[in-house]
Write a sequence for this structure.
């Protein structure tokens, strides 16, 4: 009777009524058992009954009570020990004992139970169960799960293999499209995943993915467990993506995790985890593809996850670290220092949550160390580098031999040691780095992305050691590791070219030492492979195209400028041109310089492309282009908001510095810029489809035949400065390009001159004898270097550091009369940032005003500029036939000046010019109440009728010392971009009285033939006349050399 009662009880759903009944039944059967002699045969079935009742009671309470489970197991054992009269009862007792042990292990983790569970289930596996009404499926499932659990604890491969075998057998016992089939399929997938984690065999991972897919396919859309199936399938797909780089896997993982996110309510505490998992997918794909859209998605989701994470959550450091990691990647992509500073702040917050002994301390240390390493390359502060090294050393201590992250930590430390060597020249750092890299190379599995990077870095370090020691074995080993790294390059990977180039250099060096032509041939073959083009010129063109695309990814001009300044790409256009010149492809050289220089101005100028011809064909399309272009320009010229400032190395700032909820305007601007760019690309294709002759090169690199138009008013002298070779190219209208070679030491001498002049100007005040002497030496040497044939009018287009030198005043140049003459005495000299800028200055001449021009004077006198008032009055007197508007005092605000500029084709500034080193877009005119009319605000203006701007202020044509001279970021260039065809600026600080004198001489010359015929086209000659008169006053060289002319 007892077995029948307990069997029926097991079929009841657990509820309070059942619990009351079970309690009474346990008491009843205990009384009956106590009344029987110890060896009475009825005690065995009674023990079985009590055991089943206790187990049932533990289920009825809603959770597993250990006391009931323990007593149930004791009663089951006693029943089996005493011996049950019927074989079926024995089978039932064995099954229930095994199940109760399994549940106790699952709930309380009693390791000693696991061996018994496996032993009992192995016995049950060998006997028939169906006659006892027991589903073999349940027994086998518990058996397989128990083996899997023991594998998790002990790592015995035979356990997981037997578990997989059992799960495979169970699948054959249950019909498809049932819950049992789905559960077993899921368990089989999980077992394969666990086996993969131990064996690292890709076929095991493939099996796991296959069965996870099958389990998910059989799971209803509204099933509560579907979100867990989605998570696990996405996890193994990401594991395979990390091994193979197959973008289909990461795409599927993103879809799965997005579906999982859609299933989670906003109030669900798991939402923050689901967001973080989805962000990890996007960040991983970004690392493979460099698609910034994925990175921005990751950052957005990580910010939301961090906001959802409670302040005292035990895993908050993970959420801080993940967002910091993505912001570090954004810095590496766009070189925005505010992103890096925010990342450092987040990493420090995460580190505070991971004190010594915390299991995740090494992750926080590693992230902060990487961020500090990146910052040291921007700040060049040794304390940043030292903190990075100290953090990495501590991380290494926390990852002892056998730790899975040790190879990565060793590699990271070697990078900082390499930098320390480059800064100090101490070979000890290279030796230590080589030691760490050799260890890492033995620990990481061949074929992994980290393996490629380790071998490449080891090759670089060995090459450095060879330079010091000269041991041939070092360069031989370096080449061996370069070869290994090359063999591991994925198709199309961005690091491929640099790795191949380094290997080519090593092979070429061996050829130079041994004369073995085999190495030379392989070197040439590798270079061809690295470029993937049939010729070097084609490869350079591709590089310039990619450079333009990379720069255009930035949503604002400030972001783009930071990218150009942060990347080692500034010399690419000049090097490309030097190769073309060496090949006597002079036209291609000019096209390359035009394509690769002044990228910021040309990018914005393309948005202002005139479409008069198109309007006659399709006005709505032209209007659509203009509308989108204006929206894009509004974003591009936005002033970035940077609310993170640099913190000193080692600063332990408090949590208040971590702006978790800050609005990410960069992400917003980037998304909107990407959307508008996509729309504009479609419009451009539609415009090109008309095939209008005037628009044949619409939004394409400009061919030489169109660039040559820039020389219609006189030759343009392009001075190309490259470490490979430097040359002068003279572009003439309707004539071939003239090539003038320069001395072999031109590059080094010109670079030295620029540095020497810049350092002297920083160290000595205006009109310093020291600076005057250095300037004079510079001009004399420039004259010797250039050797340009004499002509009446020229435009100078210098590249690289030459853009900071006063080439127009090169000299003195010897003459038959022994009179000191400078370049500007022989020629009427103007400058142009690029040929396109000069062409734009001459475009739409019909739009110029006829008759006497109107002039706007912006004057802001103060104690240091006492002559501004008299300067303005003098100009007004000379402008008697024209209209003059003067803005000064309270009216001299940036807004008022911008409002008046469209009303006057001529403008004269007489105020302070403010230079902002490192922040060129903040360079400005200082106006009333210390307000600033900045370069960026001027560039936003669109002034199609503007003609002449005279900038009688300090620094208006001076480049900031930020390393991007070819972008020509100064106030003079901004005025030219906004529409002024001719602009006069200053290369450095100016003397107040020079402004008065020069403006008098200049405007007198401009109106010498009458105001009616005054034209901006005469401004270059008028400036030369004015500076020559200024020189007659016996002023120092630096004062008259200061003034330069830009444009038509």
């Amino acid at each position: 009777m007892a077995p029948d009662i307990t069997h029926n009880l097991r079929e009841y759903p657990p509820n309070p009524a059942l619990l009351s009944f079970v309690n009474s039944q346990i008491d009843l059967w205990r009384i009956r058992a106590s009344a029987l002699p110890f060896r009475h045969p009825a005690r065995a079935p009674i023990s079985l009954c009590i055991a089943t009742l206790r187990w049932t009671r533990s289920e009825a309470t809603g959770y597993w009570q250990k006391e009931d489970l323990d007593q149930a197991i004791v009663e089951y054992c006693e029943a089996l020990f005493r011996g049950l009269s019927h074989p079926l009862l024995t089978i039932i007792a064995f099954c229930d004992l095994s199940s109760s042990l399994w549940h106790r292990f699952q709930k309380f983790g009693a390791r000693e139970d696991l061996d018994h569970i496996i032993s009992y289930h192995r016995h049950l596996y060998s006997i028939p169960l169906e006659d006892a009404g027991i589903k073999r499926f349940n027994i086998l499932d518990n058996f397989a799960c128990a083996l899997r659990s023991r594998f998790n604890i002990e790592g015995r491969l035979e356990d997981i293999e037997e578990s997989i075998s059992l799960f495979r057998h169970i699948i054959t016992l249950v019909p498809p499209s049932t819950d049992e089939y789905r559960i077993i399929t899921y368990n089989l997938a999980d077992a394969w995943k666990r086996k993969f984690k131990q064996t690292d065999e890709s076929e095991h991972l493939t099996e796991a993915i296959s069965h996870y897919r099958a389990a998910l396919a059989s799971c209803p859309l509204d099933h509560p467990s579907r979100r867990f199936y989605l998570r696990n399938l996405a996890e193994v797909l990401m594991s395979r993506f990390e091994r193979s780089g197959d973008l289909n896997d990461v795409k599927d993982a993103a879809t799965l995790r997005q579906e999982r996110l859609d299933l989670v309510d906003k109030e669900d505490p798991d939402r923050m985890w689901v967001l973080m998992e989805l962000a990890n997918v996007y960040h991983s794909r970004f690392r493979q593809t460099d698609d910034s859209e994925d990175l921005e998605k990751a950052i957005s989701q990580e910010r939301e996850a961090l906001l959802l994470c409670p302040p005292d959550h035990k895993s908050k450091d993970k959420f801080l670290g993940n967002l910091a990691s993505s912001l570090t990647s954004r810095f590496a992509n766009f070189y925005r220092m505010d992103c890096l500073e925010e990342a450092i702040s987040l990493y420090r917050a995460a580190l505070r949550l991971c004190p010594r002994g915390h299991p995740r301390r090494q992750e926080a240390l590693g992230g902060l160390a990487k961020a500090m390493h990146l910052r040291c390359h921007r700040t060049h502060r040794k304390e940043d580098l030292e903190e990075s090294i100290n953090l990495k050393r501590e991380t290494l201590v926390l990852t002892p031999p056998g730790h899975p992250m040790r190879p990565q930590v060793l590699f990271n430390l070697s990078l900082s040691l390499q930098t320390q060597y480059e800064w100090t020249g101490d070979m000890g750092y290279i030796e230590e780095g080589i030691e760490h890299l050799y260890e890492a190379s033995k620990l990481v599995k061949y074929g992994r992305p980290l393996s490629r990077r380790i071998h490449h870095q080891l090759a670089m370090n060995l090459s450095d050691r060879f330079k010091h020691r000269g041991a041939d074995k070092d360069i031989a080993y370096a080449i061996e590791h370069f070869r290994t790294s090359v063999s591991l390059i994925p198709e199309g990977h961005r690091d491929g070219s640099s790795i191949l180039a380094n290997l080519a250099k090593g092979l070429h060096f061996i050829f130079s030492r041994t004369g073995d032509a085999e190495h030379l041939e392989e070197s040439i073959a590798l270079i061809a492979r690295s470029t993937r083009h049939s010729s070097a010129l084609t490869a350079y063109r591709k590089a310039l195209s990619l450079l333009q695309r990379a720069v255009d990814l930035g949503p604002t001009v400030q972001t783009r400028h930071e990218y150009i300044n942060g990347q080692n790409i500034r010399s690419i256009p000049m090097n490309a041109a030097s190769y073309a010149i060496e090949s006597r492809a002079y036209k291609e050289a000019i096209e390359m310089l035009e394509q690769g220089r002044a990228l910021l101005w040309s990018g914005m100028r393309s948005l202002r492309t005139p479409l008069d011809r198109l309007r006659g064909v399709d006005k709505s399309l032209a209007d659509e282009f203009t509308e989108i272009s204006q929206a894009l320009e509004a974003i591009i010229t936005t002033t970035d908001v940077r609310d993170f400032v640099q913190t000193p190395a080692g600063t332990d700032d408090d949590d208040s510095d971590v702006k978790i909820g800050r609005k990410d305007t960069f992400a917003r601007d980037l998304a909107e810029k990407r959307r508008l760019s996509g729309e504009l690309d479609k419009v451009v294709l539609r415009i090109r489809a008309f095939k209008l002759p005037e628009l044949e090169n619409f939004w394409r690199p400009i061919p030489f035949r169109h660039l040559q138009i820039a020389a219609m008013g006189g030759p343009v002298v392009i001075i190309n400065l490259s470490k490979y070779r430097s040359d002068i190219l003279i572009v003439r209208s309707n004539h071939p390009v003239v090539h003038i070679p320069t001395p072999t030491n031109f590059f080094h001498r010109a670079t030295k001159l620029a540095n020497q002049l810049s350092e002297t100007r920083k160290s000595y005040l205006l009109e310093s004898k020291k600076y005057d002497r250095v300037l004079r030496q510079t001009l004399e040497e420039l004259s010797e270097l250039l050797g340009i044939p004499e002509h009446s009018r020229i435009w100078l287009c210098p590249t690289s550091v030459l853009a900071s030198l006063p080439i127009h005043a090169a000299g003195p140049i010897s003459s038959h009369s022994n009179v000191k003459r400078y370049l500007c005495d022989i020629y009427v000299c103007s400058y142009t940032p690029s040929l396109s800028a000069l062409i734009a200055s001459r475009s739409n001449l019909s739009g110029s005003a006829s008759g006497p021009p109107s002039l706007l004077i912006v004057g802001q006198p103060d104690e240091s500029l006492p002559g501004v008032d008299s300067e303005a009055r003098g100009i007004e007197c000379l402008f008697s036939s024209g209209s003059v508007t003067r803005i000064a005092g309270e009216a001299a605000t940036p807004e008022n000046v911008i409002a008046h500029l469209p009303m006057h084709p001529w403008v004269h500034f007489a105020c302070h010019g403010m230079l902002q080193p490192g922040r060129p877009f903040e360079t400005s005119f200082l106006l009333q109440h210390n307000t600033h009319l900045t370069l960026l605000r001027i560039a936003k203006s669109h002034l199609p009728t503007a003609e002449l701007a005279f900038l009688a202020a300090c620094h208006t044509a001076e480049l900031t010392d930020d390393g991007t001279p070819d972008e020509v970021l100064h106030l003079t260039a901004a005025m030219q971009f906004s529409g002024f065809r001719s602009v006069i600026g200053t290369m450095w600080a100016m003397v107040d009285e020079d402004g008065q004198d020069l403006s008098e001489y200049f405007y007198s010359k401009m109106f010498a033939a009458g105001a009616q015929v005054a034209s901006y086209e005469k401004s270059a000659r008028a400036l030369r006349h004015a500076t020559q008169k200024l020189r007659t006053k016996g002023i120092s060289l630096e004062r008259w050399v200061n003034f330069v002319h830009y444009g038509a």
The longest strand covers residues 793-798.
